[in-house]
């Protein structure tokens, strides 16, 4: 009988894998041990081997697609065998599951039809019919990219008032500013949907303008439904919006300005800008001297007041401000498996573990001298990161609380020291583990870290290389970073953020002299480590690095 091939779990944090490349195709003969495909996990790209012999009958996942763990990705069996029977028997992507979306799709339109029919039960005219009769629905406009609702700060009109297309109906308070709402409609204010001081959701009905006596019960009973429908239609067609006849769209808005600035409607500003007209030369005919569309259309340069004649000396005309027209561009890429896991695990750590941070400055003068002497004889060059790693391992043996792990209902105090070293790669971050670091020499640590870095960048790390850390070090000193805070790599209790060595003035024996100082910041999980415990660990680390001969004892 044919056998299904499922997506295996290749690491402890893996939830899904991406088929990077298939090495076989349907109809090929495969043997046990043959590489079927390359799978991209959250940590590396790994080979997927076959444990069956036979013919590849079916490939269920295309290259570049991701599938969850245990999903069926292929079927192997005898040539000509029915692979669908094997899929059905395994409970995979059978026909029954494929039929579910169809059932859902057939039901969905019915539900939508019912929702769309609801407004007609209001007994009045629909919004479309009202628009044909000259009725304009004023909705709460989207005045900023973060706005979800607006508060009516002031109504300038009341029900029954006559309004013109350039009248300001209300002031709306958003999350950013208080702005004016203009209806761009002429008629009678038939309805105010939101009282002063109350909030309305974006696209909620706030007013209706139209001929006096018009029946608006249909649109009131429909609520916000037509607006949402119109919004979705606009999103699909991407039709340009017209401010002149936007009877069902959000109301145009003009920013409130102080008396010292020119008052003009947004439409007037746009037309003036297109025609190159200076608004300061235009007299407004609306309330409070506001400039509206017809003022711009009727403006003639000859009719502008001659300000220069009233002065004894002709004033110099200000040079127009230079304008630069740019183009907004961007590129979107699908999130890689590694980036998905980084986002998930670090978000869980930061928002679950109560972090606190301890920073300490360390005098690195003697460490610099010791490193130079060691590298004269060492077969593998020792870096400052290797010195920090070795000192950290020794300090952890003296402070087991910092070397602990939070396991939910218990705390594990690790007697071994496995230090994860954060390594930056093209797609994100990997943390290979130097095991039993306290017992290894500096040259051994140096060689191991270099090997891990090469494997990480080549995506050749195996699960055993990144699992089982009890503490983590993240070093950005080589990038010129003085200090920073890092997010704990759960379930570890702490992570050490290492900055660069800076030459600064320091006080030694009562005199100010040049010094080499490195800052480190310990991020601690307060569920397992308290401030005093973290401080004691840093004091030990500082003493070891300031007297590096103790690392060899």
From TrEMBL:
InterPro entries: 2-oxoA_DH_lipoyl-BS (IPR003016), 2-oxoacid_DH_actylTfrase (IPR001078), Biotin_lipoyl (IPR000089), CAT-like_dom_sf (IPR023213), E2/Pdx1 (IPR045257), E3-bd_dom_sf (IPR036625), LAT1 (IPR006257), PSBD (IPR004167). Its cofactor is (R)-lipoate. Residues 91-125, 227-265 are annotated as: Disordered. Binds 2 lipoyl cofactors covalently. Residues 96-118, 227-239 have a biased composition (Basic and acidic residues). Residues 2-77, 135-210 form the Lipoyl-binding domain. Keywords: Acyltransferase, Lipoyl, Pyruvate, Transferase. It catalyses: N(6)-[(R)-dihydrolipoyl]-L-lysyl-[protein] + acetyl-CoA = N(6)-[(R)-S(8)-acetyldihydrolipoyl]-L-lysyl-[protein] + CoA. One of its GO terms (molecular function) is dihydrolipoyllysine-residue acetyltransferase activity. SUPFAM superfamilies: CoA-dependent acyltransferases, Peripheral subunit-binding domain of 2-oxo acid dehydrogenase complex, Single hybrid motif. Residues 240-257 have a biased composition (Low complexity). Residues 263-300 form the Peripheral subunit-binding (PSBD) domain. Its EC number is 2.3.1.12. The pyruvate dehydrogenase complex catalyzes the overall conversion of pyruvate to acetyl-CoA and CO(2). It contains multiple copies of three enzymatic components: pyruvate dehydrogenase (E1), dihydrolipoamide acetyltransferase (E2) and lipoamide dehydrogenase (E3). NCBIfam families: PDHac_trf_mito. Forms a 24-polypeptide structural core with octahedral symmetry. Belongs to the 2-oxoacid dehydrogenase family. This is Acetyltransferase component of pyruvate dehydrogenase complex. It comes from Pedobacter punctiformis.
């Amino acid at each position: 009988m044919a056998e299904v091939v499922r997506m295996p779990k290749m690491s402890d944090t893996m939830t899904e894998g991406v088929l990077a490349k298939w090495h076989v195709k349907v109809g090929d003969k495969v043997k046990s041990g043959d590489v079927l495909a390359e799978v991209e996990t959250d940590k590396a790209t790994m080979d997927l081997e076959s444990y069956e012999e036979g013919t590849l009958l079916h490939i269920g996942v295309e290259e570049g697609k991701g599938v969850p763990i245990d999903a069926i990705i292929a079927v192997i069996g005898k040539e000509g065998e029915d692979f669908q029977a094997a899929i059905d028997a395994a409970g995979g992507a059978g026909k029954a599951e494929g039929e579910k979306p169809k059932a859902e799709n057939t039901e969905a339109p019915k539900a939508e039809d019912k929702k769309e029919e609801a407004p007609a039960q209001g007994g009045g005219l629909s919004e479309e019919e009202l628009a044909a009769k000259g009725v304009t629905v004023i909705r709460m406009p989207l005045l900023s990219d973060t706005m979800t609702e607006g508060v009516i700060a002031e109504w300038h009109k009341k029900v029954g008032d006559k309004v013109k297309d350039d009248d300001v109906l209300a002031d709306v308070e958003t999350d950013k500013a208080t702005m004016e709402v203009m209806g761009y409609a002429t008629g009678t204010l038939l309805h105010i949907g939101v009282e002063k001081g109350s909030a309305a959701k974006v696209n909620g009905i706030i007013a209706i303008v139209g001929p006096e006596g018009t029946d608006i019960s249909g649109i009131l009973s429909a609520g916000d439904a037509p607006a949402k429908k119109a919004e979705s239609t606009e999103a699909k067609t991407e039709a340009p919006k017209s401010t002149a006849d936007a009877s069902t769209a959000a109301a145009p808005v003009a920013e409130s300005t102080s008396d010292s600035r020119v008052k003009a409607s947004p439409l007037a500003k746009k037309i003036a800008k297109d025609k190159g007209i200076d608004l300061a030369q235009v007299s407004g005919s609306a309330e409070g001297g506001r400039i509206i569309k017809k003022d711009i259309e009727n403006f003639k340069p000859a009719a502008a007041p001659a300000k220069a004649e009233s002065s004894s000396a002709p004033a110099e005309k200000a040079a127009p401000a230079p304008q630069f027209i740019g183009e907004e561009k961007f590129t979107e890429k699908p999130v890689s498996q590694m980036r998905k896991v980084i986002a998930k695990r670090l978000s869980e750590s930061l928002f679950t573990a109560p972090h606190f941070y301890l920073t300490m400055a360390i005098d690195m003068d003697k460490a610099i001298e010791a490193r130079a002497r060691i590298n004269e004889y060492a077969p593998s060059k020792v870096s400052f990161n290797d010195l920090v790693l070795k000192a950290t391992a020794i300090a952890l043996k003296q402070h087991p609380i910092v070397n602990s792990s939070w396991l939910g209902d218990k705390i594990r105090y690790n007697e071994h020291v496995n230090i994860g070293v954060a390594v930056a790669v093209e797609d994100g971050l990997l943390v290979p583990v130097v095991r039993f670091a306290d017992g290894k020499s500096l040259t051994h640590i140096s060689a191991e870290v270099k090997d891990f870095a090469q494997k990480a960048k080549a995506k050749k790390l195996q699960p055993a290389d990144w699992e089982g850390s009890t503490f983590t070090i993240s070093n950005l000193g080589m990038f010129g970073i003085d200090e920073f805070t890092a997010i704990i790599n759960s379930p570890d209790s702490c992570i050490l953020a290492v900055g660069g060595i800076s030459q600064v003035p320091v006080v030694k024996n009562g005199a100010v002299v040049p010094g080499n100082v490195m800052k480190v910041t310990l991020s601690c999980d307060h569920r397992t480590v308290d401030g005093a415990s973290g401080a004691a660990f840093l004091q030990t680390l500082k003493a070891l690095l300031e007297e590096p001969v103790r690392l060899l004892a």
